[in-house]
Design a protein that fits this description.
The chain is an alpha+beta fold. The protein has one domain: 3-methyladenine DNA Glycosylase, Chain A (Roll). The protein is 15% helix and 28% strand. It is built from four helices and nine strands; from the N terminus they run αβββββααββαββ. It is globular and about 40 Å long. The chain binds a DNA duplex through strand 3, strand 4 and helix 3.
DNA sequence: CGCCGGATTTAA
DNA sequence: TAAATCCGGCGA
């Protein structure tokens, strides 16, 4: 699964792939690439720390972090071991296990936006810090599997990175399935 | 050691 | 538009 390559390329390769945990199956519809210390928007921007250590690990592992004091974010580690990069899973569609997802997502109704947003994706899968470093390519727990690739891909700047340099803020490292409704801020995206 | 602010979501 | 809510990273 082409994860051992630069984050932006790996990010595109992750669109359409599946995240499976027990009866819940999600199809990835939106992602964002984050690079190493040279990327001022990345958690790796201050170098290696206990929190971001998984980003330097082998590709195909999970990197989970807690944000805004209430949300877990799921990333797929990419690139060669020893170099920091990861792909944030931003949105997904529910292919199976809808009852379980609705139960976990509390008040949410079954709309195309049910898992549109990184916090929502992690919540739908019931993820937390115990999945940090988990091998997504091995059977058991949370698994990443092949799925139907998107026909058209949309590209645009990453969201929520106002703290980054102007250059990194406009870097077109957000990717989405052009045919999916589970995508945030469609207006800021354009065809690849 | 204390402060600042964040790869967000939700409801008003 | 703002509140919820907490910990990582930085400066002192």
């Amino acid at each position: 699964m082409e994860l051992n390559q630069p984050a932006d390329l790996a990010a595109r390769a992750l669109l359409g792939r599946l995240l499976v945990r027990e009866e819940v199956r999600l199809r990835i519809t939106e992602v964002e690439a984050y690079g190493g210390p040279e990327d001022s928007a990345s958690h790796a921007r201050h170098g290696r720390t206990a929190r971001n250590a998984p980003m330097w690990g082998p590709p195909g592992r999970a990197y989970l972090y807690f944000c805004y004091g209430m949300h877990w974010m799921l990333n797929v580690v990419t690139g060669p071991e020893g170099e920091a990069s990861a792909v944030l899973i931003r949105s997904a569609e529910v292919l199976a296990g809808l009852d379980r997802v609705l139960d976990r997502r509390k008040a949410a109704k079954n709309s195309p936006q049910l898992c549109a947003g990184p916090g929502k994706v992690a919540q739908a899968l019931g993820l937390d810090g115990t999945f940090d470093g988990h091998d997504l390519l091995a059977p058991g727990g949370l698994e990443l599997r092949n799925g139907p690739r998107p026909v058209g891909i949309l590209v645009g700047p990453r969201l929520g990175i106002g703290f980054a340099t102007a250059e990194d803020q406009v870097r077109p490292w957000r990717f989405a399935d052009g045919d999916s409704l589970a995508v945030l801020q469609r207006k800021t995206l354009h065809s690849l």
